[in-house]
Specification:
mainly alpha; 2 domains; 10 helices; elongated
């Protein structure tokens, strides 16, 4: 508990100072609320509109989680397949990089045209955002396995499957969790982008409505909610990393 407090108190103090400077600046320069609301105004609006906003937040949380889980599964399957089948890796790896050069904001309308306004195009958008960091981190983790340990296991009679699950997979776990932490935060961004382009509920929908009606305070409520949700996903993955990696380390 003390170690956790030592890690968070400094950024918490910096954040508090930034909010105080923000509040003082808005008050001193008498900035209009529609242009830049104060932190106190944003906090009041968050409390006032929580009943309706919570439904949008719940919708985005579910969508982010579903997309993240699918993106994780796709990323791991692709990474394992490319690692086990060398000629596929040489042929497909450059194409994976090309997929990340396509702007999601441009691709999303096409997915809506092809698949409609339902759940499927939204999940595809989040999957496209999430799978790449996991795939790359996983492949890098497999490559970092010490060659001498591979040689030792082969001399002991281990086949390729045993070599993978008993050596390469455990050694790649830290890298995999690094990719998962990146993808977990990306999943929220992907969910909000997909909601911008067509949805009945969600933080993205809430932001669009607030922006079109010049409710800047509500826009900031949505922005802070996205940040908190992303941090929550990140810390959950971090806790899972500590449990799995430390447990694996003790069992080796």
């Amino acid at each position: 508990m003390r170690n956790a407090w030592n890690k968070i108190w400094r950024p918490a103090v910096v954040l508090l100072l930034l909010l105080i400077i923000w509040q003082i600046s808005v008050t001193f320069f008498q900035i209009e609320e529609w242009l830049l609301p104060s932190p106190l105004s944003i906090g009041r609006e968050a409390l006032t509109s929580w009943e309706s906003f919570s439904l949008h937040l719940l919708s985005t949380t579910k969508l982010s989680l579903y997309g993240f889980l699918i993106g994780t599964a796709v990323g791991l399957v692709i990474a394992i397949t490319l690692h086990r089948v060398t000629f596929l890796r040489k042929a497909i790896y450059p194409l994976l990089i090309l997929t990340q050069n396509i702007p999601i904001i441009v691709l999303a309308p096409l997915l809506i045209i092809w698949f409609g306004f339902g759940l499927l195009p939204k999940l595809i958008i989040i999957t496209l955002v999430c799978f790449f960091p996991i795939t790359i981190a996983c492949l890098d983790g497999f490559m970092q396995t010490p060659a001498e340990l591979k040689h030792y296991m082969k001399m002991s009679g281990a086949n390729s499957r045993q070599l993978f699950w008993k050596l390469e997979w455990p050694f790649s776990l830290p890298s995999i969790f690094s990719g998962l932490k990146i993808s977990a935060t990306y999943s929220v961004m992907g969910a909000v982008i997909s909601e911008w382009l067509g949805a009945k509920s969600g933080v993205g929908v809430y932001m669009n409505l607030a922006s079109s009606s010049f409710r800047t305070d509500r826009v900031f409520v949505a922005i802070f909610a996205i940040m908190i949700l992303s941090l929550l996903f990140f810390f959950i993955i971090q806790l899972l990393e500590k449990w799995f990696v430390h447990r694996k380390g003790r069992s080796v």
